[in-house]
Amino acid sequence: MELLERRIRADGEVLPGGILKVDGFLNHQMDPQLLMELGREFHRLFAGEGVNKILTIEASGIGPACFAGLVFGCPVLFAKKNRTRNLSGEFWTSTVFSFTHHVENTILVSKKYLGPGDRVLIVDDFLANGAALDGLITLCEEAGASVAGAGICIEKAFQPGGERIRARGVRVESLARIRSMSDCGEIEFC
Ligand code: 5GP
């Protein structure tokens, strides 16, 4: 999506270790007009899939997921991160290794809000190694919900998550796919 690629080139910052900082418009300060356009694009891509719920993970997926939810006209559910494993039976849980914080989190959603009747679009800000997406897909599987696919704002295609999850049979649509990033800040899109 050209609008997003232009914004990444203009305001994104490449940090050492293959991290792209986009906290001026996506995951700290947010540009609502841009996020609305991303939501519309997710809707264009997944219209007709019968999506009745958007699922994301706290915290930085919540912004784009809410705008997607507005366009789809459906609820937005975010998985919470929890380090205590002592959970009663009211939650679906799975585990996710955080790429940015280097810790393993248990993620959970209430059984009240995800179940076999749901057709889910997973939305997240980044796809890198795919741990977050794997965890969210596992939550849906546990709940018996079906996954229409994943809508990702920025995929770092030089990391293995996208390829692995597509090979698993899940439709993944990324609005900007980065082929490479150099330490001097050059970004090449697929
Ligand atoms: P994964 O689980 O696919 O390795 O990473 C996905 C999660 O890590 C995203 O939800 C995002 O919050 C974070 N993440 C991964 N790579 C980056 C990056 O380059 N920049 C930022 N800001 N977050 C990232």
Automatic annotation (TrEMBL):
It comes from the Bacteria. GO terms for biological process: purine ribonucleoside salvage; xanthine metabolic process; XMP salvage. InterPro entries: PRTase-like, PRTase_dom, Pur/Pyrimidine_PRTase, Xanthine_PRibTrfase. CDD domains: PRTases_typeI. 5-phospho-alpha-D-ribose 1-diphosphate binds at A128, N129, G130, A131, A132. It is found in: Cytoplasm. It catalyses: XMP + diphosphate = xanthine + 5-phospho-alpha-D-ribose 1-diphosphate. Homodimer. This is Xanthine phosphoribosyltransferase. The lineage of its organism: Bacteria, Bacillati, Bacillota, Clostridia, Eubacteriales.
